[in-house]
Amino acid sequence: MGKEFVVVMRGPSAMLFDHNKQLRVQDFQSDVGPVNITYTTRYLNRGPEVIMPGDLWIDIRGSANSLGEALEPFANAGLGMLPLLTLSSNSAIEDADIELGFDNTSGLTERDYFQNYIPPESNVVHVGRRINIEATIALLRALGPHPDSERLRRGANQYRLALLSWRLGRETLSLAHLWMAVEAITKAKLRAECVAHGVIEQADLAAKMGVDLKQLDGVIRKELILKGDKECYEKARKASDGFEHGFLGYDKIRELSRDVRHRMADYVRVAILEMCGLDDNTFATLTSDPYDKPLGYWPVVKYLRGKLVGSGDELAAPGNAYPFIRWNPTIKSSKLNENGRIECQLNETLTVETAEGIGFQQQSLEVWQAG
Predict the structure, then answer these.
(1) Where are the alpha helices (DSSP H) in 28-66?
(2) Which of 16, 165, 220, 362 could be bridged to 170 by S-S, CB 3.0 to 4.6 A?
(3) Contact status, residue 40 vs residue 336, Cβ threshold 8 Å
């Protein structure tokens, strides 16, 4: 009988749990035996009315012979669920890192302990979305016994990687992972179609669909996974092949990726959810607002627009290379509202650093959710 160990991980996430809410996964099989995993959001008290969501917090507990034996397998178990949490919430979750590991065996007077330095969360406001715990549990239960569970998990992980690049300028990486997700789930969709058509062999399915066996995978992808969207299929395949094999200019690849990225994400996610065999209510919940829109993980962006006014060709303050507005934001209040959105009130202090005789006339201060 091994000792009892606790491994704690944390990392950035656009997926949020309500305060004091968590998702528990019992008896998840790690490389050293079953572990119990708890996922929750760490909340940061930054002032009387400033409660900010911090990192995703993962607590993994189980038995092992030593702390060294527990650390990596426990961590891999904790990370193994992230693709499904991304699939459920349709929001980006970055890889978490081990922060703590320790012997939690009852009755000991000496215990092994490990800690990894992870920088504390900043006060920068990031976008976030509340996860639906009940729908997520239903998804996990449906996927567990699925005969193609492993392939669907691979597709979900590629979807997670796509959302990690879900921001302006990274469309190519997003699309590359979405195309790999399509490739990962093709055989699962093919086998599901065999069952639906009452056949066992792929050749028999090809005959029923009226296509050559060599074309079957492509037809499954274009007609079933991408719902017959020929433009999306052709542009995504061309962008992916051009990116992988280097025969297209990057500008052209990005243009193709930008054209179809959102459609590809919707087709891929819906295809995986359809194959999981969810009940109608869970499927409707996970494909309705706000979960029908991918959400990356990035800070809100702020733009200041105005005019430099005054006489003189020297614009920068002494010692500066350029005219500059020193930006000092402070958070007046922050909370997660009942709709699962982060509500913040910010105070923005702007200090103008320009040459003598040069002033700044503000026209607008804009706050945007980029992506």
Answers:
(1) none
(2) 165
(3) no
Tell me the domain boundaries of the chain: 3-130, 147-276, 301-368
DSSP codes joined into one string, 81-124: THHHHHHHHTB-BPPPEEEEEEE--TT-S---EEE---PPP-S-
- For residue 100 the two structure tokens come to 């703590």
Residues 7-21 have pLDDT tens digits of 999 999 999 999 889
CA dihedral 125, 127, 128, 129 (to 10 degrees): 150
Please report the sign of the dihedral spanned by the C-alpha atoms of residue 188, residue 162, residue 139, residue 4: positive
Q: How far apart are CA 91 and CA 291, in angstroms?
A: 8
The residue whose two tokens read 């025969």 is 247
Is the previous residue joined to 12 through a cis bond, with omega within 30 degrees of 0?
no
Overall pTM surpassing 0.85 (yes/no): yes
DSSP 310: S
The phi and psi torsions of 140 (rounded to 5 degrees) equal -60, -40
Which residues on adjacent β-strands are paired with residue 97? 10
Residue 1's pLDDT is 56
Within a 10 A sphere around the Cβ of 137, how many other Cβ atoms?
Answer: 15
How many Å apart are CA 277 and CA 193, to the nearest integer? 14
Question: In CATH, what class is 147-276?
Answer: mainly alpha
| 98 alpha-carbon distance from chain centroid | 19
CA dihedral 61, 67, 69, 70 (to 10 degrees): 20
Per-residue pLDDT of 170-193, as tens digits, reads 999 999 999 999 999 999 999 999
Q: pLDDT by residue (tens digit) across 61-100?
A: 999 999 999 999 999 999 999 999 999 999 999 999 999 9
DSSP 222: I
Closest CA to 58 of 83, 75, 34: 75
305-316 residue pLDDT tens: 999 999 999 999
